Amino acid sequence: MKPDLNRTETRLSVRASKQELQSWNHTARSAGHKTLANYFRSLMNSAPMLQSEKILLITELKNTREEVARIGNNLNQIARSLNSGEGFNDAQNNMKQCLKILSQIDSMIATIKR
Prior knowledge:
single chain; about 110 residues; mainly alpha; 4 helices; about 70% helix
């Protein structure tokens, strides 16, 4: 998003306990944000705002996606080692299936973020 040059920046302050701040920082990182300010901006600009259940679901889907990607990498290494040709088609089909699952997870994450 391009900055609005005609906009005057203002500061928003929020009081929080140390425990709340730690919890918010953890939630922001879990949702993929580097700073709490970026996380709050994302929440305030989203329509509708993400509920905690959605954030947990996105986190779980991202973790699952990472696991499937690692499995796909392992399958790719196995496929390379099968130079004889026997079993190669099975490994290749498994890799294609992993890539399809990764794509489906990416779509679910994008849908949930809307």
